[in-house]
Amino acid sequence: MRLLDEIVSRDESQIVCRKTFSPDEFFVQGHFPDTPIVPGVIQCECCLQAGAVLLQQSLDATPGTVPVATRMDGVKFKRMVKPGDTVEIHVTLNEKVSNAFFLTGKMLLDGKVAMRLDFACSVTSVAGSDGEGGST
Q1: Which of 12, 34, 65, 134 has a C-alpha 20 to 30 A away from that of 99?
Q2: Which of 97, 10, 109 is nearest to 52 (CA)?
Q3: Is residue 130 part of a domain?
């Protein structure tokens, strides 16, 4: 499930993406009846996906690896995001320690913070990427 519509800008330590939430997206159906809003977990996932795209630049040198979320801290929701809203997703790489990356993400709605979180990812090998493993 891809939750990023476009990459607006990117450098080695920051990425800005954009997403417009459609009223037809499955995760707003029934959340909540007559007053749909984008679930907080989906907003977090938008930041995690933007972080993965940001980290992909550094992982290109190590084929067969992917960033995997390991922690989310200090998650704060400040404004409701509704179907039809377009948000900007900003993610900043704060620190890298060994194979762990520490990032901050925020989602802006109309230029104001709608949510923010600190999160960590570690780099892991993809099973079967080297021709071994997987099903037979």
Answers
A1: 134
A2: 10
A3: no
Candidates 40, 124, 52; CA nearest to 78 is: 40
Tokens of 66: 């992917």
Per residue in 76-105, pLDDT (tens digit) is 999 999 999 999 999 999 999 998 999 999
Q: Is 90 a catalytic residue?
A: no
Three-state DSSP class for 6? strand
**What six digits make up the tokens of 42?**
């989906």
Instruction: Name the residue with tokens 């922690």.
Output: 71
CATH number at residue 81: 3.10.129.10
Q: In the predicted model, what is the mean pLDDT of residues 124-136?
A: 56
Both structure tokens of 78? 């400040």
Per the CB < 8 A criterion, the answer to whether 18 and 46 are in contact is no
Structural domain harbouring 58: 6-125
Instruction: Tell if the pTM clears 0.70, that is, is over it.
Output: yes
